[in-house]
Amino acid sequence: MQKTLFTFILIYLTFSTEVFCQTLFLEINGSNETETKIIDSPNYLKTHKDYFSIKSEIEFIQNSLFKKGYIEHETSEVSKINDSLFSTTINLRTKYKTVHVYYNNQLINKNILHQISTKVFDNYFELPFKQIENALKFINAKITEDGFPFSTLHLDNISIENKTYLKANLNIDSPKEKRLVNEIIIKGYEKFPRSYLKHYLKIKKNQAFDITTIKNKTEQLNDLRFASQIKSPEVLFSKDSTSLYLYLEKSQSNNFDGFLGFGTNEETNNIEFDGYLNLNLTNNLNFGESFRLLYKSDENDQKTFNVNATLPYIFKTPIGLDFELQIFKRDSSFTTVDQSIKLHYQINSKHKIYTGITNLESNNLLSTINTSNITDYKTSYYTIAYEYIKPQSYNLLFPINSNFYFETNFGESRTNQFIKKTNSTIY
């Protein structure tokens, strides 16, 4: 008895598996050969694992035809031809190529519509039927950028004007009050310099809220050497305010490199230092400032001392200060002192302009008269410069993607014999 029952169950499971695993086929025809080719043009899925998949594919084809302008198409009931083949017929009927969309010119700027349509009038604009969906998304994105994140829009009162185009009204549902960024809250690195938000990222209070634009801007935080973004910004909406949360962390960007040796000069009995020192300090005061000290001394009795500092966003303005001092000494022959001070204006995260003054002075240290090849001179000139820099923070080996620097100088140089006006350009 048990053996017979086991055999029956085995046979049942075998046939059941074959039934459930059977491949089903879908065939969709038009009312004529031309329509069949149009329907078949998207290369719809013809093989399916079950009837539910067949119904989903038919709905997909219907939606695709609607977007192409066949809004009046009719679909017959699905017929079962045999155990594995199912068929349906779609009558496409009229194809509408254009839609005249009527709008409220008090709610939508014409400049927005000109970006999606070549025919824009005072109260309506024309669109190819297949572009309606993307056009509505574009308009909604522009409205959102203007501070209305909860706006929705749709077409209603759709009617047929003639055999080629339709007529519809564009309705926009949005709050009366524009959403502004009322508060910016920084989590993680609370002492992050706020001037960088305002002038580097261009994120500030009381500007129109648009989360997409804000996310694109905060990605630039990863280009800073002293801070990075932990996760994407978040927003808290209340009835009458909008709070923006930024999640940052402070990066350690200080570094020190070098070696120093010292000894006593046999001729002067003074202590002299030889070696190399490179010190870089960044954002230790939480202002985004930077300081660099470089010292070199070699066996050829050449000494180089260089110090430069950058103070960005002085008094919370987009104006910063750059200072540099470089001293070069060649044994006991001559010294050269190069001093420069510049003001820079941060246009945005990639563009910066400079203006400043530079003084360069060289002094002959030799006391002998026969030193005509070494002459004292002094040069002073004014500087105007432009810099473009595009970082790539993901590449530690090459952190700069592209960099362009243009500088022009004008001034005069003085020697013991004459005064000469100078002009120069640096790329």
Features:
7 helices; 4 domains; five-stranded mixed sheet; 427 residues; ten-stranded antiparallel sheet; Ubiquitin-like (UB roll)
Task: Give the number of DSSP strands.
Answer: 22
Name the CATH architecture of the largest domain.
Beta Barrel
Order of helices and strands: HEHEHEEEEHEHEEEHHEEEEEEEEEEEE
Give the CA-CA distance, first to last residue.
97 Å
Low-confidence segments, given as residue ranges, are 12-20
Q: Give the strand order of the largest sheet, numbering strands 1, 2, ... along the chain.
A: 13-14-15-16-17-18-19-20-21-22
Number of helices: 7
Task: Give the domain tally.
Answer: 4
Q: Radius of gyration over alpha carbons?
A: 37 Å
| Helicity range | 10-25%
* Major pleated sheet: 10 strands, antiparallel
Provide the CATH top-level class of the largest domain.
Mainly Beta
CATH topology of the largest domain: Porin
- Which term fits the overall shape? elongated
Characterize the structure shown:
InterPro entries: BamA/TamA_POTRA (IPR010827). Residues 181-237 form the POTRA domain. This is POTRA domain-containing protein. There is one protein chain. The protein has 427 residues and is of the alpha+beta class. It has four domains: 17-91, Ubiquitin-like (UB roll); 98-173, Ubiquitin-like (UB roll) (Roll); 183-250, Ubiquitin-like (UB roll); 255-426, Porin (Beta Barrel), CATH 2.40.160. It has helices at 2-20, 33-40, 51-68, 110-113, 132-145, 194-200, 211-218, and strands spanning 24-30, 47-48, 74-75, 79-80, 85-91, 98-102, 124-128, 152-160, 165-173, 183-187, 227-237, 242-250, 255-264, 271-282, 290-297, 302-311, 319-330, 334-346, 351-364, 377-391, 400-415, 419-426. The strands form four sheets. Strands 13-14-15-16-17-18-19-20-21-22 form a ten-stranded antiparallel sheet, with no helix packed on it. Strands 1, 2, 3, 4 and 5 form a five-stranded mixed sheet that branches. Strands 7-6-9-8 form a four-stranded mixed sheet, with helices on one face. β13 and β14 (271-282) form a beta hairpin.
